[in-house]
């Protein structure tokens, strides 16, 4: 049986569905849909040189890779590669072949530092080490049972605050772009990222097929967005993409208010399962999620390899 690596066939619905299914089996804590896979490839900034690869064995997709340059970082030469193999198809050489193909492509595009998230398990960590990657920070996947769990009551609104949704900004989402840019810049990370391209943000984030604008909750203070919790859904599953507050108003419970309100709306809309992710160093958000009832269900480890 021969394993080969090739480009994902974006115009082939069956190929895209197989890509999404492998990712779902490998990491069920992230929402993967064929529409989201196609959207990412179609709307990622051209400077990212983004590609999606598949490892195929006897005509069946058994592994995937998403790769690209971190084009929105002020430091050049940084790149990311994320490889997932179907848990039932390990030890066939798919992961190693995907890594080598990805590294060849990225270094050819000028990458000198490669970042990758690796699931926290002995086999996954040994695989990363064998390929020359060093461990860095950790992050957690968290899960909340919306169908049977108990949500805390909605906190009181502070003076001058109002609860809104992203749908209220449909005519002019720029205030949400500015809020997103400020919160992303302060998120714990090995790579600094700057959101400066509004049109790219509209294409990649605002028009993302999984973004649920009715469940994405915004706390306005004195008429301006001060905090938000961005909600993605794929039916009955709900995932928080980002929760944050403007720097000037942090420490007042606004992010907790936004996320609590979003979860209450999600349950009322029929969502039964909620997921989120947290950097291990992000103590404030870990505390908020624990208060909401989330429990850690998996951990991943950031790895880096310097090349060239």
List keywords for this structure.
single chain; 308 residues; alpha+beta; Aminopeptidase; twelve-stranded mixed β-sheet; 8 helices; 12 strands
Could you give a quick summary of the protein structure above?
The protein is of the alpha+beta class. The protein has helices spanning 13-26, 34-43, 94-108, 122-130, 174-185, 198-206, 254-268, 283-292, and strands at 3-7, 51-57, 60-69, 78-85, 113-119, 134-145, 161-165, 217-221, 224-233, 237-245, 273-279, 295-306.
Total helix count?
8
Taking the alpha carbons of the first and last residues, their distance comes to 33 Å
Query: What's the CATH topology label of the largest domain?
Result: Aminopeptidase
What is the annotated CATH architecture of the largest domain? 3-Layer(aba) Sandwich
Q: Could you report the average pLDDT, rounded to the nearest whole number?
A: 93
Instruction: Please summarize the sheet with the most strands.
Output: 12 strands, mixed
Query: What gyration radius follows from the Cα positions, in whole Å?
Result: 20 Å
How many separate domains make up the residues?
2
- SSE series: EHHEEEHEHEEHHEEEHEHE
What structural class do you assign from the helix and strand content?
alpha+beta
Relevant CATH superfamily of the largest domain: Gcn5-related N-acetyltransferase (GNAT)
Number of strands: 12
Strand content: 25-35%
- Give, in spatial order, the strands making up the sheet with the most strands: 1-2-3-4-5-12-6-11-10-9-8-7
CATH class of the largest domain: Alpha Beta
Overall body shape: globular
Stretches with pLDDT under 50, minimum 5 residues: none
């Amino acid at each position: 049986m021969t394993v080969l690596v090739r480009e994902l066939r974006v115009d082939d619905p069956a190929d895209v569905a197989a890509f999404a299914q492998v990712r779902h089996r490998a990491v069920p804590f992230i929402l993967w849909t064929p529409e989201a896979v196609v959207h990412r490839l179609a709307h990622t900034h051209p400077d990212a040189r983004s590609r999606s690869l598949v490892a195929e064995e006897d005509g069946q997709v058994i592994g995937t890779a998403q790769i690209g340059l971190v084009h929105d970082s002020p430091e050049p030469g940084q790149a990311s590669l994320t490889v997932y193999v179907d848990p039932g198809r390990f030890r066939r050489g798919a992961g190693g072949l995907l890594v080598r193909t990805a590294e060849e492509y990225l270094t050819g595009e000028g990458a000198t530092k490669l970042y990758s998230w690796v699931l926290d398990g002995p086999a996954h960590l040994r695989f990363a080490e064998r390929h020359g990657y060093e461990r860095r920070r950790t992050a957690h996947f968290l899960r909340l049972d919306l169908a049977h769990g108990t949500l805390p009551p909605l906190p009181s609104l502070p003076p001058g605050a109002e609860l809104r949704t992203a749908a209220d900004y449909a005519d002019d989402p720029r205030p949400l772009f500015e809020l997103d840019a400020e919160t992303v810049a302060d998120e714990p990370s090995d790579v600094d990222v700057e959101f400066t391209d509004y049109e790219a943000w509209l294409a990649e984030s605002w028009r993302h097929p999984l973004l649920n604008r009715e469940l994405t909750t915004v706390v306005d203070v004195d008429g301006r967005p001060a905090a938000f919790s961005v909600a993605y859904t794929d039916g009955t599953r709900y995932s928080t993409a980002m929760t944050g507050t403007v720097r000037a108003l942090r420490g007042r419970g606004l992010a907790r208010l936004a996320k609590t309100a979003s979860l209450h709306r999600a349950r009322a809309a029929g969502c039964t399962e909620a997921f989120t992710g947290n950097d291990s160093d992000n103590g404030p958000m870990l505390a908020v999620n624990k208060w909401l009832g989330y429990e850690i269900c998996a951990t991943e480890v950031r790895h880096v390899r310097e090349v060239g």
